[in-house]
Design a protein that fits this description.
The complex is a heterodimer of chains A (221) and B (429). Chain A is of the alpha+beta class. In chain A, 33% of the residues lie in helices and 10% in strands. In chain A, the strands form three sheets. Chain A has a three-stranded mixed β-sheet, with helices on one face. Chain A is elongated and about 65 Å long. Chain B is of the alpha+beta class and 429 residues long. In chain B, the strands form five sheets. A four-stranded antiparallel β-sheet of chain B has the order 7-12-13-14. The chains are: A alpha+beta (221), B alpha+beta (429). Chains A and B meet through helix 4 and helix 6 of A and strand 4 of B.
Chain lengths: 221, 429
């Protein structure tokens, strides 16, 4: 049986085993998005990139091993490439976690966190289902425009999000969020006023104010 | 001619924040300067014009140690300014939140100050010398934090508390469990006191307070006053919240970034020692026994630490009783959010809260639902001048007993400052 060395760990595998399966056997974590064993192995997301010591890149889900080989699965350049690939995919996703029933069970959200991709709002971690959203009850929550990562601790504790983790800067997400605020009857200026409390000294707040200005009909704000 | 600098303590250790203490003058007549050196943060001015619903959440950021005191006192002031009346359950849960904070803050401070009462130099040394007592104290603190998380969402900047609301859904069984946990804390504290009793030695036994006037919240009946509408001074004077400025004179200090206060032109003190004296009649017998175990002398400022320990044991019983009372009738907290739409009204209100370190005052004027004026007086500001006069008396007292060594005097003054449990971030709000 061929021996596969991944990040210095050696495992013996059946000929034809994918690098992804070999890595799992070796206890090396490789992020992935599109692969569903037995159902889809088309290697279209390219998030599971690995490389040979010589630097040749492969998708781990679709490269099969028939002889002794060595791979690198953990290196800064690999993580950067995975992040860029995922960011490009996520650009096509309509991020509206506030309306999504999947919440924490979403692989996009968990991968975005793992790869450090920006654009996921606190709503993705909110324990309340969309039907019980605080915004629907007239409570101005900043979860839609605030970066995820806190496990929505304030909402879980009985309050609303005040934006302490900083703003999302992806314009399309902000645009949809401000549209939603308007639909639910919140004045855009009141949203910005509340956001000022934690964000006033942040450069990234300029992006939020710019999108808010357009949303309220004030041109390029 | 400039006064001679006798002692200099820069950044007194084991207190919340930064404070420098200088002792100036000659042998017979020394003057102590308690100088908060942290930068002022202008909370009162920076919130002018903000919607009042946002004010408590920001005010709680005055201090990460006693955030609940500022949060709840701010809420009380706004409710009084706007004439809002919270639901009884909301008020009770708010009192529980406040009580848990006093309990936890007191207990942690006892841990910080315990080396002064056991003849050791710091907490690390204490933990090595008495690992069993130390780990029990850490474990008790953990239990209290667990109760806080269960009832109020989390311990710091509690998200469940708001103007006329309590946002965390909570069930009767959860309240029962929290009550049971707190009962256990009370028992464990009484057991621990028996062990501490053998180690506990006051750093200045027999030292008497030179200015015995104190201030607490006026208690209605025999209920611990977490909030009140009146202040009570030890000379029997009762002052309505709205008239606090007539009794308490707030003054600027030439050497401190914090203000200081006087009552009838003299210093006064606030905190656990004041509360135990004022509310002595309410103490249950099993808690009163702790006064003997820790040899508490109410006239000795150092014994504020013993008072904190005793108050903690007392509060665990008070709070467990409150939670048990609330458990059968609690409704889903989400229902309390009905008053979330705070009217854009105008008015003026003063909130009085018992903070861990003493009386806390938040005074607001609201115009059309926005904050127009704010004045905050914190317990450390009230204690500032009292710490100075106590320090002066302590140096005289120590010298009369032949203590002239600079390092020993420094240690004694630092222990005195710690005993007041000052919170400097609060004082320079």
């Amino acid at each position: 049986m061929p021996k596969v060395k991944i990040d210095g760990r050696v495992v013996e595998v059946e000929p034809g085993t994918t690098v992804l399966a070999a890595a799992e056997k070796a206890g090396v974590r490789i992020p992935r998005l599109c692969v569903v064993p037995g159902l889809y192995e088309g290697s279209s997301c390219r998030v599971c990139l690995v490389k040979t010591p010589a630097g040749r890149l492969f998708p781990a889900c679709n490269y099969r091993v028939y002889r002794d080989e060595e791979f690198v699965a953990t290196s800064p350049d690999l993580w950067e490439m995975r992040r860029v690939n995922f960011e490009l995919l996520l650009a096509f996703h309509r991020i509206e976690c506030w309306q999504c029933e999947r919440k924490g069970a979403c692989s996009l959200v968990s991968l975005a966190k793992e790869l450090g991709v920006e654009g996921i709002p606190v709503c993705s971690e909110c324990p309340l289902p969309p039907s019980e959203c605080l915004l629907r009850r007239g409570i101005l929550c900043l979860g839609m425009i605030t970066l995820a990562g806190c496990e929505a601790e304030c909402v879980a504790g009985g309050g609303e999000c005040w934006g302490c983790r900083g703003p999302i800067t992806r314009a399309d997400v902000l645009e949809r969020a401000f549209k939603r605020y308007s639909e639910l009857g919140f004045d855009v200026t009141s949203v910005v006023s509340k956001a000022e409390i934690f964000w006033n000294s942040l450069d990234s707040f300029g992006v939020v104010k710019s999108v808010a200005g357009r949303a309220s009909g004030g041109g390029r704000g | 001619m400039a006064e001679r600098l006798v002692l200099s303590l820069e950044e007194v250790p084991a207190v919340a924040g930064k404070v420098n203490v200088y002792v100036r003058g000659e042998e017979a007549r020394v003057r102590v300067e308690f100088g908060a050196v942290q930068e002022p943060r202008f909370f009162e001015r920076s919130l002018k014009g903000r919607p009042v619903t946002q004010v408590p959440w920001v005010m709680s950021r005055i201090c990460g140690v006693c955030s609940v005191a500022h949060l709840t006192c701010s809420i009380e002031a706004i409710e009084r300014a706007l004439g809002l009346e919270p639901e009884p359950e909301v008020r009770l849960l708010r009192e529980v939140a406040k009580g848990i904070e006093i309990l936890q803050n007191n207990f942690v401070h006892v841990l910080m100050a315990i080396p002064d009462f056991t003849g050791l130099s710091n907490v690390v040394e204490f933990s090595k010398r008495y690992p069993k007592i130390f780990s029990e104290m850490i474990s008790i603190n953990k239990s209290v934090l667990g109760v806080s998380n269960r009832v109020c969402g989390r311990f710091i900047h509690m998200p469940s508390l708001g103007v006329a609301e309590h946002g965390k859904p909570i069930s009767g069984s959860e309240l029962e469990a929290a009550a049971k946990e707190l009962e256990g804390v009370g028992q464990r504290m009484r057991d621990l006191a028996a062990e501490l009793s053998e180690l506990w030695r006051s750093p200045a036994e027999g030292f008497r307070d030179p200015a015995p006037t104190y201030c607490v919240l006026d208690a209605a009946g025999d209920e611990y006053p977490f909030f009140s509408e009146r202040l009570r001074f030890s000379d029997g004077t009762v002052v309505e919240a709205g008239s606090y400025k007539e009794a308490i004179e707030e003054l600027k200090s030439p050497y401190s970034n914090a203000h200081y206060t006087l009552y009838k032109g003299s210093p006064f003190y606030v905190g656990s020692r004041a509360r135990l004296q004022a509310y002595a009649r309410m103490l249950p017998p099993e808690v009163r026994e702790l006064e003997g175990a820790l040899r508490m002398d109410p006239a000795n400022p150092f014994d504020n630490v013993a008072a904190q320990y005793i108050e903690t044991a007392w509060l665990s019983e008070v709070l467990s009783g409150m939670l048990r009372e609330l458990a059968p009738s609690i409704r889903k907290a989400a229902e309390f959010r009905a008053l979330k739409d705070v009217p854009a009204a105008s008015g003026e209100g003063v909130g009085l809260a018992t903070a861990p370190r003493g009386v806390l005052i938040h005074h607001y004027r609201v115009v059309n639902g926005r904050l127009d004026y704010a004045n905050i007086i914190t317990p450390t500001v009230m204690n500032a001048r009292h710490i100075e006069v106590s320090g002066e008396a302590l140096i005289r007292w120590a010298r009369e007993r032949g203590l002239h060594d600079e390092w020993q005097l420094k240690g004694l003054v630092a222990a005195l400052v710690r005993a007041y449990d000052p919170c400097l971030p609060c004082s320079v709000h």
